[in-house]
Amino acid sequence: MAFAPADDPKIAVLVVIDEASAGSYYGGVIASPVVKSILSDTLRYLDIKPQYTEEEAKLLLKNKIIVPEVRNIKLKEAKKLITQSKLRYRLEEEQDEPTEDSLVIDQTPRADSKVDEGTIVILYAKPKE
């Protein structure tokens, strides 16, 4: 059982797992990741922002990288920018296989998002016409 936010609860989550099959059967191991995911998504949906002490905020922002804007540039340049930013990329192919001269039409996470070093930026590109 979990609830959030702690000082003024808006949601409660109860995860029940019947007959866990992955070795450990303790709630902290099995249910906690599910609860964390549900709470994170729900709080974001409700637009409830996390509140941190000054010290916590400094620790969280340490080693964060700002995702570069790579939409509307060539795939080759986008890959270079992402790699230089200490991030990784993955190309999501729609129909035709993009080339290095293809135009990046979208990206996830969005530009200016703060992410951990090594985060994968998913690129969507269309072949040059």
Describe the structure.
This protein is α+β, with helices and mostly antiparallel strands and 129 residues long. It folds into two domains: 2-51, no CATH class; 64-126, Trypsin Inhibitor V, Chain A, CATH 3.30.10. It contains four helices and seven strands, in the order E-E-H-H-H-E-H-E-E-E-E. The strands form three sheets. Strands 4-7-5 form a three-stranded mixed sheet, with helices on one face. A two-stranded antiparallel ribbon has the order 1-2. Strands 3-6 form a two-stranded antiparallel ribbon. A hairpin with a 6-residue loop joins strand 1 (2-4) and strand 2 (11-13). The N and C termini lie far apart (54 Å). 12% of the residues are buried.
CATH class category name of the largest domain: Alpha Beta
Portion in helices: 25-40%
Rounded radius of gyration (Å) = 20 Å
Number of helices: 4
Mean pLDDT: 87
Shape: extended
Beta-strand residue percentage: 15-25%
Largest sheet: 3 strands, mixed
Q: Unreliable segments (pLDDT under 50, ≥5 consecutive)? A: none
Derived structural class: alpha+beta
